[in-house]
Design a protein that fits this description.
single chain, mainly alpha, 0% strand
Length: 219
Amino acid sequence: MKLFDRLKDAAADSWRDYTHHEFVEKMAAGTLPHDAFRRYLLQDYLFLIDFSRAYALAIYKSQTLGQMRSNLVGLKGLIEMEMDLHVRICERWGLSAEDLEKTPQRTETLAYTSYVLETGHRGDLLDLKVALAPCVIGYGEIGERLAAIPGALDERNPYAEWIREYSGPDYQELRHHAIAELDDLAPDGIGEGRFRQLTTIFDQATRLETDFWQMGLKR
């Protein structure tokens, strides 16, 4: 059984709250209030900047050249794919690059990014990757599920582009790469004590993701 699947099973309630949150369900239905999506876009841009720093930290934490190259793939995906997507979408929602840069971090954004970076500084590369997993892998899972909902990819749905991006082959490749990477980093016969530590990290990061969706719904 893959380490990711074990972690997801151990944090099943938190994972479902995150991946089936009201925010993403309304995106699929096209009923999410526009101002909620704008709040999310602004904060997610800032969130991705700090996540890029986390991937840079992962390169530093790497023990082999192969791990460094693997983390470089993730870093490039964040900077060249997700952040570019945000800029493109934000422009269509009337938000300029200047708007993105001058937006202050909300408490939920700061809490999540601080937790990931602190986990990475305090622990090893596996700790950091487990803290990153709910975002990197979860968005791919959410995108794939939403794309299968009738009407979600209809051009009349203002959130179809977001769903299309995270359900598309490029992001799905990143998702499966991240799943495989956890297994590569996990030592053979990982003990129950170590697994409990990783589950705590995974569950906390997942709950912080849920808080991030909820932030978008706050007026």
